[in-house]
Write a structure and sequence with these properties.
Helix 6 runs parallel beside helix 7, helix 12 packs parallel to helix 16 and helix 23 runs parallel beside helix 24. The strands form 10 sheets. The chain has an 8-stranded parallel β-sheet. It has an 8-stranded parallel β-sheet with strand order 32-31-30-26-23-22-34-33. A 6-stranded antiparallel β-sheet has the order 14-15-16-21-18-19. Strand 15 and strand 16 form a beta hairpin. Among the domains are: 346 residues, Glycosidases (TIM Barrel), CATH 3.20.20.80; 69 residues, Oligo-1,6-glucosidase, Domain 2 (Oligo-1,6-glucosidase, domain 2); 85 residues, Golgi alpha-mannosidase II (Immunoglobulin-like). 25% of the residues lie in helices and 16% in strands. It has 1122 residues and is of the alpha/beta class. It has 34 helices and 42 strands. It comes from Ignelater luminosus.
């Protein structure tokens, strides 16, 4: 498939090639892997005895609803004996049923009838705490022998809690016992004391509880609030979270590093999993499952799956549709969240998707009722487990519960003003069965929480009307599709077809194909399904959402599909069909820049031809053959304009002349001429944000010469007080007072670099003329420096530190970029030839960077620099981190645009220093094999390291303007030391004159000449070879698949029919790893090593059997061909 700009994520379930053969005594080990788990909140489900509270008999009475819906397993929120302080999560007896729900016989009857109907039964397991009325606590509080340490007790002054820990339910997490004269921990209500899992007797007690319920026939457990199980043994104060919305008494006020996800917690989960597996071995039957609840960060949550040597939970709940998404999320946000879970989850494990639960506002409330169908469709079509909270299948919304009617301690223990924010009662109102009294929940008794006011129109009975399109009927149909082989075993691809439309396909050879289209926006969207490969020209509507005007069976062209606002649509082709990989249609060849390697030259450090200590243009000309030999497409020159040199040429005193340090205009013209003869493009730095204070414009503006008064940003104010709190990139205020003009001028960099005023049309035209001037000389494009700083908020308000919200990425900045693009496009029409390009520098967030590409009506830059390999990755990043960063860029980048990959530049420490020497080859391979543009900073092709530059030798104002103790942190001189050409004096940079910065000490061993020795495996030779591969059709047009084959091994495949397939294996870790290539679908049986990294012991041509694990040494990278 031609790469269109969005990653195609291939997720293949382990069982895709498996046929399960079970004997009666072994049961089905995999029933849960594609299951629909249905959470029942018993108090609110069905009240059989009309006492106002739901009960077990009511659940039994309604089992046929679950069967009708197609549910696999019902999971019951706590039904244990309890005083009811926290709706059953305060347990006084783990082995008995609370009388409000019935008795053990009622439970046994429920289990029997559920199994007869093919339903599994899952119980909530609440191991963190009990009720203070539990026999264990009563005995522990009284120091009864054997129970002294069943809970977490601490000594202390009766008036001062042992530390600052805060309860989930507000206030201190400690309560003083007058009986025991000690404090006990309660991370929830003070009636819910925390159990002490450092006590072996308690651990065995809880294991016995699990065995007890297993003996009664339950099929597994959902483990409540697992993250809180252990606490740090030192009981240290927890640090502030700095959450501005959290009050001092609220749980979110602290960062819970000592009470959440402690190492011992994972071990306890592994022990419970071992118990379940032992029980399975002894009793046979279907697998008993464990699922865990934790809202922690992904690196904590995913450890609950296991650690490689121990199995953990069958799946930890994936709450990201709750915690990371809402009604404001777009299709790219949704795709990224899906990709991220599947990236970080080990491939051998099973994914799960939770849309809602009893602790979170209902889906219809969080997202809007119009999105309910699409989200249910999505949750069913994604691979793995779907978890549904009762009522979500009919699109129930939050109910109305007043402060006076409330029951939830999380809300009731807080301030009344925070009731609607904190209470969980709204999502716990009774199930809406029909339009009779109390929505059919009971026959008239006042319900424990009020029934939602919309029950007469929003209820199951209304949605069961034959022929009616309803949330429930759609849910029901999607559950059926989830049970198909395609959904169980098929591969999955997700694309953000537009910013508002998510597309998802599930395909399996000889089985139906399904395509989900989900428009999350409140406006029509037009989408092109040809971005998905393998789809026929026409597909049939299978399941339309209730907002869709389409009917099942109608035919849709896959070329262009118009979707109504919020429309969700499942389309497909039923019956057997052959799914084969097909090549792209090359309607248009890539333009020269779309697969280019752009090579950044820092002129002052590249080559000094006249031996004055500074690199120059003639030196660049002298070394053009190196660029040709390497295979690069274009040379981009950092600033060479006339400049006083206060910031290495970024302080420009004449935008139309050459700095004499580098040569003359004739030298530059000669460079352009020779480069073109050799097939190289020349790109110039364009520095539009500021000039030098020596520029003629500034001097005239400072003197208020007519026509120049507003060329810069001038603000009135007292001479001793800057106009606002804005700070410079180079330390101190971003304002300098001009005694001449009696005003302040803005300089976001040094005081010698005043900011230009783009609200002045004369300045706009001046800079457009500058662009045209250099285009006329023959340059092929521009890299626009620090584009984000171009405009400032017109009122110049103080900004919140450290964020520059009033001077970065203002709306007018994007418009100016669009104007410059139009200038280049117009120039192209008037002066035919190869495309002239612009690329921009911005380190902003993704939502600010992507608009530089353009919008629906205007073209922007050809590509904004992608600095994420610099900003978000380093030597500690694993394969999942790298994959996630790749996925995210390709997800948020609109399809019609071209990605780019930047590993380093003159402002950042070199790749070797940010990563390790071992990473150099793998990163070069990766950025060449990825689709789009590769940017190389001079010296990275040979693996240059940061040089050694002392405070006294320093030149960079970012370092020199700071403190000497911060020199190594702030200075950019280290990555700007001269290029290491050979082992002669000054590394061949010149003939002996002291360079402007010292040559790195390792130049005799690390230099280009040495790496070009015949038959030597070197960074340069690897760079050269992989760059040649980049020019192949496979890498220009081929499909891309990325997988984290292990936590440390990144796998990447590019394939194009009738062309070689390339596979990259990159071990980013410092230990040996074995990678399974079978996670790639249709991988060739035999592959051959095309390019090994310098640390690899494999030679080119070595055969690799893809059916066998590939063992990779630390940092080993291989490009394979097949």
């Amino acid at each position: 498939m031609m790469f269109k700009g969005g990653i195609i994520l291939i997720f293949v379930l382990n069982s895709i090639q498996s046929t399960f053969c079970q004997s009666p005594n072994t049961g089905d080990p995999n029933w849960w892997k594609n299951a629909v788990f249905y959470q029942i909140y018993p108090r609110s489900f069905m009240d059989a005895n009309n006492d106002g509270i739901g009960d077990l008999a009511g659940i039994t009475q309604k089992l046929d609803h679950l069967v009708d819906a197609g549910i696999t397993a019902l999971w019951l929120s706590p039904i244990y004996k309890s005083p009811g302080v926290d709706a059953g999560y305060d347990i006084s007896d783990y082995r008995d049923i609370d009388p409000i729900f019935g008795n053990l016989d009622d439970f046994k009857k429920l289990v029997v009838e559920a199994k007869e109907k093919g339903l599994k039964v899952i119980l909530d397991f609440v191991p963190n705490h009990t009720s203070n009325e539990h026999d264990w606590f009563v005995k522990s509080e009284n120091n009864v022998t054997g129970y002294e340490n069943y809970y977490v007790w601490k000594n202390g002054d009766p008036d001062t809690p042992p530390n600052n820990w805060i309860s989930y339910f507000h206030g201190s997490a400690w309560k003083y016992s007058e009986k025991r004269k000690q404090w006990y921990l309660h991370q929830f209500a003070d009636a819910q004391p925390d159990l002490n899992y450092r006590e072996p007797k308690l651990v065995e007690e809880m294991k016995d509880v699990l065995r007890y319920w297993l003996d009664l026939g339950v099929d597994g457990f959902r483990v409540d609030i697992i993250s809180a199980l252990f606490e740090d043994i030192e009981f240290l104060d927890e640090p502030r979270s700095n959450n501005p919305n959290a009050k001092e008494t609220e749980h979110g006020y602290l960062n819970h590093i000592y009470t959440n996800d402690q190492p011992e917690t994972y071990d306890m989960v592994y022990q419970w999993r071992a118990l379940l597996e032992q029980y399975q071995a002894e009793h046979g039957g279907d697998t008993r499952v464990m699922m865990t609840e934790s809202y922690s960060d992904y690196d904590k949550v995913l450890k609950y799956y296991g650690n490689g040597t121990h199995n953990g939970a069958h799946f930890p709940f994936n709450f990201w549709f709750i915690t990371h998404l809402n009604k404001d999320s777009n299709a790219r946000d949704i795709k990224f969240i899906i990709d991220k879970w599947l990236t970080y989850m080990p491939l051998e494990n099973t994914a799960n998707w939770v849309m809602g639960n009893h602790d979170q506002f209902r889906v219809a409330t969080r997202y809007g009722s119009a999105r309910v169908d699409g989200l249910n469709m999505l949750a069913m079509l994604l691979p793995g487990v779907t978890v549904t909270y009762n009522g979500e299948e009919i699109g129930m919304e939050n109910g109305e519960v007043s402060w006076e009617e409330g029951k939830d301690p999380q809300g009731c223990n807080g301030a009344q003003s925070d009731w609607e924010k904190n209470s969980r009662d709204f999502q716990r109102t009774p199930y809406q069965w029909d339009d009779s009294v109390n929505a059919g929940f009971n026959v008239g008794t006042r319900t424990w929480l009020p029934v939602a006011s919309n029950y007469k129109t929003s209820n199951l009975k209304n949605q069961l009307v034959k022929g009616l399109k309803s949330h429930y009927r759609i849910y029901q149909e999607m559950v059926k599709i989830k049970k198909s082989n395609t959904s169980k075993y098929g591969d999955m691809r997700t694309l953000a077809l537009t910013s508002s439309v998510l597309g998802l396909t599930r395909q399996l050879r000889d089985n139906p194909t399904y395509v989900l289209l989900l428009n999350v926006a409140n406006k029509e969207e037009l989408v092109d399904l040809s971005y998905f490969r393998d789809l026929p020209l026409n597909l049939t509507v299978k399941v339309p959402g209730i907002t869709s005007s389409r009917s099942p069976g109608s035919v849709i062209s896959t070329k262009l599909v118009k979707l109504d606002a919020y429309e969700a649509l499942l389309i497909g082709k039923l019956g057997k069909e052959t799914i084969s990989w097909t090549p792209p249609t090359r309607a248009k060849e890539l333009d020269w820049w779309q697969n280019a390697v752009v090579y950044q030259i820092y002129p002052r450090s590249f080559k000094d031809s006249d031996n004055d200590g500074n690199g120059d243009i003639k030196g660049i000309i002298e070394k053009l053959d190196h660029l040709i030999d390497a295979g690069v497409t274009a040379a981009w020159l950092s600033p060479i304009y006339k400049s006083p040199g206060k910031d290495n040429g970024y302080d420009i005193s004449d935008f139309r002349d050459i700095n004499e340090t580098y040569g003359t205009m004739d030298d530059f013209k000669e460079l352009v001429s020779q480069a073109k003869q050799k097939g190289l493009k020349i790109i110039l730095d364009f520095v539009p944000n500021h000039s030098s204070d020596q520029h003629e414009w500034f001097q005239k503006s400072e003197n208020k010469e007519p026509g120049y008064e507003d060329y810069y940003i001038w603000i009135d104010g007292p001479s001793d007080t800057p106009p606002n709190n804005w700070t410079s990139y180079f330390h101190g205020p971003a304002w300098t007072y001009s005694k001449k003009r009696k005003q302040w001028y803005l300089h976001q960099f040094s005081t010698y670099q005043p900011d230009l005023n783009y609200r002045n049309e004369k300045v706009v035209q001046e800079m457009k003329d500058v662009l045209t001037y250099w285009l006329d000389i023959g340059v092929d494009g521009f890299r626009i420096d620090i584009i984000s700083a171009l405009f400032e908020h017109p009122e110049f308000p103080d900004g919140p530190l450290p964020h520059h919200v009033y001077r970065n990425d203002q709306p007018e900045t994007y418009d100016m970029v669009y104007q410059w693009r139009k200038l280049l496009d117009d120039y192209q029409e008037e002066h035919p030839g190869d495309t002239r390009i612009i690329m921009t520098e911005s380190y902003s967030e993704v939502d600010k960077i992507m608009p530089y590409y353009g919008n629906e009506t205007h073209n922007g830059v050809h590509f904004p620099f992608n600095f994420w390999f610099i900003q978000h990755l380093n030597k500690n990043s694993d394969a999942r981190d790298i994959k996630s960063i790749i996925d995210k860029w390709l997800t948020y980048m609109p399809h019609r645009f071209t990605p780019d990959w930047v590993l380093g530049n003159h402002d950042q420490p070199r790749v070797v220093n940010r990563y390790t020497r071992g990473h150099v080859d793998g990163l070069a391979m990766l950025t060449m094999l990825l689709p789009g543009v590769t940017i190389t900073y001079n010296g990275e092709e040979i693996g240059m390291e940061n040089g050694e530059v002392s405070w006294e030798e320093g030149d960079d104002p970012q370092g020199c303007n700071g403190n000497q103790e911060d020199w190594e942190k702030n200075s950019r001189d280290f990555q700007r030391t001269p290029f290491q050409w050979d082992s002669t004096r000054n590394a061949g940079f010149n003939k002996g004159k002291k360079p402007w910065l010292p040559v790195a000490k390792n130049y005799e061993d690390l230099n280009l000449k040495r790496q070009k020795v015949n038959n030597l495996k070197s960074h340069y030779r690897i760079y050269q070879k992989v760059l040649q591969l980049k020019k192949t059709d496979t890498l220009k047009y081929g499909d891309l698949e990325t997988l984290a084959l292990t936590s440390n091994v990144l796998g990447l495949r590019r394939r194009l029919e009738d062309n070689p397939t390339f596979v990259l294996l990159f071990n980013v870790g410092n230990k040996t790893e074995a990678a399974n290539l079978q996670y790639f679908d249709n991988i060739p049986e035999i592959l051959h090593v095309e390019i090994p990294s310098i640390d690899s012991k494999r030679e080119p041509g070595t055969s690799i059997d893809s059916k066998q694990p590939v063992v990779l040494n630390p940092y080993e990278a291989l490009v394979l061909i097949g």
